[in-house]
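Slide 14.
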Amino acid sequence: MTTNCNREIEAREKAEIVTEDTRPGLVFRPDVDILEHADAYLILADMPGADVESVDINLEKGVLTLDARPANDPTEGSTRYAEYRTGGYHREFRISEDIDRAGVSAKMSNGVLELRLPKSAESRPRRIEVGAA
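Slide 15: predicted structure.
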């Protein structure tokens, strides 16, 4: 059986959350990349228009929640026409027990939120040395 691993990259629109009704205005589900390293998982979330002060990250009962508001709305004021829709962001992830919750860290740069979720010592791979008898 042969599988084709050469999938073309397709551009897609930001996905608006249509079931979210507790926040005023538009709320989008940010696109993410999740990378796995030997010692940690890295989540990169695209949140254009959000800045450090507008991002709220919570980890409670195994659920990691990302919320952000746009820093400023370009459609307010004297803007007569805008093709780019702005709004807030919301995304949730279930986190396994293999994550060291106390070591989770985040930073924001150019509209990209970077979350580092370190693996617990017990879940990290380790090499076992073999000694001579």
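Speaker note: Strands lie at 15-16, 27-29, 32-36, 40-46, 55-60, 63-68, 88-94, 105-109, 112-118.
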